[in-house]
Amino acid sequence: MSSPVQEILASVNAVILGKQHQIRLALTCLLARGHLLIEDLPGMGKTTLAEALARVLGLSYQRLQFTSDMLPADIIGVSIFNPADQEFTFRPGPVFHQMLLADEINRTTPKTQSALLEAMEEGQVTSDGLTRPLPKPFFVIATQNPMSQMGTFPLPESQLDRFLMRIQLGYPDPRAERELLTGTDRRKILTTLQPLADTDRLEAWQQQIDSVHLGEPVLDYLLRLVAHTRQSRDFPHGLSPRGLLALKRATQAWAFVDGRQYAQPEDVQAVLPSVAEHRLRGSIEDQGRVHSLTTRLLQAVDVLA
Fold first, then answer.
1. Is the overall model pTM greater than 0.85, yes or no?
2. C-alpha to C-alpha distances, 109 to 75, 117, 193, 195, nearest whole angstrom
């Protein structure tokens, strides 16, 4: 009999075809109390993935389309003067939902992008001198178009670091694409998804993830990976302590999704590219071939010392 977590994965896989690994990474990120950045071309299923996760997890959901003329108040909310009682009333913005889809986040200016920093890090927002807590759990799934497209603003490094993971969906394989053409409309399937969890169950899972055991070999492996990024000239930016903690949480969550209460080196290897690549920021060329930095990192550091 499948576990509730596996049932959630199966439901989302029925909507997003041929992307089992990316869907598992997305669920892993959310269970690890992280935020997710999905970078890809338009029309690849990024928005559908976010909505599907919100539905099966039973979370309040709001999609916000980012544009170049958007202001921070469009995200946080605004205080409006009420003449009847001569007072200002705060009208909360889209950020006051358990899951916020920040669609095409890099189409707005850095000033507006930064409005999400406090929300993503502290789970709260400050407006008119007052700090207001956000609902729990609080997740941001942001989509980003390739920087080669017109009308985009690069995310600042401080904003990138707030995302536990960055993933790409990529094109579907031929079999999945044929099913897209001949099968039921994915949007219709999306509307039939039923909640398979709720806030209490999700918070319970997050607490269980904290207790997933990391043995000494796994801890040593994590430390050696991070140390290599700081010591090797191949890496222009080493992983920070925050990056190390992100890698640890993602490793524990990946093991939990697999139904285990202990982590192993393979869990580290499964999540490392999505956790570390956007923090290392770059690629290297070797004998005419371009390798991602995380690929080189995994090749350079042995599992056992």
1. yes
2. 13, 14, 35, 35
